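Can anyone check this?
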Amino acid sequence: MAGIRAVASVVLNRVASKRWPDTICRVVYQAKQFSWANDYRERNPKLVAYTEKVQRVVAKAIAGRLKDNTRKSTHYHTLAVYPKWAGRLEMTEVIGFHVFYKYPRRKT
């Protein structure tokens, strides 16, 4: 569940940021952002088992009752990859098999 909460937090953190769209739907369905936003349930029956868990987390997120366990991260990837953008961001957390990042603070 920590991983599901973390991904939901990334979505909410993007909504709160001026760098991203201002609604959950626009963030989630923005082109090439979240591979899970496509409907994989028919192609991957294992994901169906997570539906209820995900729905509970989403309900908490929408209600404003989700604790951010990513320290305001706006990006993440699995441990299996290292995207080009990762080196430009500040790593915040490792949760399960995912690494989370946020934009670094600007130096003043």
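Reply from J.R.: I decoded it. The chain has a mean pLDDT of 88.
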